[in-house]
Description:
The chain is an alpha/beta fold. The chain has helices at residues 35-47, 87-95, 104-115, 176-180, 182-189, 200-221, 238-250, 259-262, 272-284; strands at residues 2-8, 12-18, 24-31, 51-58, 99-103, 124-129, 133-139, 142-143, 226-229, 263-264. Helix 1 packs parallel to helix 2, helix 3 (104-115) packs across helix 9 (272-284) and helix 6 (200-221) crosses helix 7. The two termini are 15 Å apart. Adenosine-5'-diphosphate (ADP) binds next to helix 5.
Amino acid sequence: MHYGGIEAGGTKFVCAVGDENGNIIERIQFPTLTPEETIPKVIEFFQKHEIRALGVGSFGPIDINVKSDTYGYITSTPKTAWTNYPFLQALQKELNIPIGFNTDVNVAALGEVTLGAAKGMENCLYITVGTGIGAGAVVQGNLLQGFSHPEMGHILVRRHEEDSYTGKCPYHKDCLEGLAAGPAIEERWGKKGIELENNSKVWEMEAYYIAQALMQYILVLSPEKIILGGGVMKQQQVFPLIRENVASFINGYVELPPLEEYIVPPSLGDNAGITGALILAKQSEQ
Length: 286
Ligand code: ADP
Ligand code: ZN
């Protein structure tokens, strides 16, 4: 009984075949070029395996409203080759199986709540801090969705008093993503995050911004677990700083679980997304 999963990212597509428990049996990856170049390779991979259903976690923004005429499309992405691309339809046409379609972060949240750090919980948040910032939320056992998927990376935050960087978001300049995603760190400090490991000011500022976002997510959603993934969060030393800032911002108003257990890296590591995609595949059959 095999299922397929796709983690479609801005730089690479990870495709996997797995079992009904989300265990990965085979995986492969392709660079994200144009749809004409990348999608046929993806389809060819899945046609070689007998899969019952497919789950897709995609970069976005995407249309996940099943009532919409453009459900399953990638919409206004800055990756122009993919703008208004009918992603789900392209897969469905060739594969003819049930396909679950959601955002990369929602699918990672699904992976972590089913098999990872939030296993057994009804409410969790998965946040990626990488090329962009995005979050997926499981609320009362379901992926949070309104007219569209949430875009929690673009909330506004209070500026750090020593930060004069204008911000990198093309829409809002100094929203959270504009101040704290990987490219913002690189532009503000003139070096990539990985090369700034020993510069404590960088991580103090980073923690200040991320902790503000977490405070707001905590107050609005009351998640039982907060999982922070993505390239920038490979800097493990930022976790204690984030926890300290969250404690200080919340200031005892809400009683939180011990923060070392509450704000954590993904326990599925880099497999959170692809594992969640396999779980979404199984769910899409019901
Ligand atoms: P994507 O967001 O494209 O899926 P990543 O999550 O790896 O990919 O995010 C890429 C961003 O994270 C880049 O801005 C990169 O500089 C930064 N990054 C990647 N690895 C590290 C690291 N070990 N330490 C700090 N920053 C990193
Ligand atoms: Zn923004």
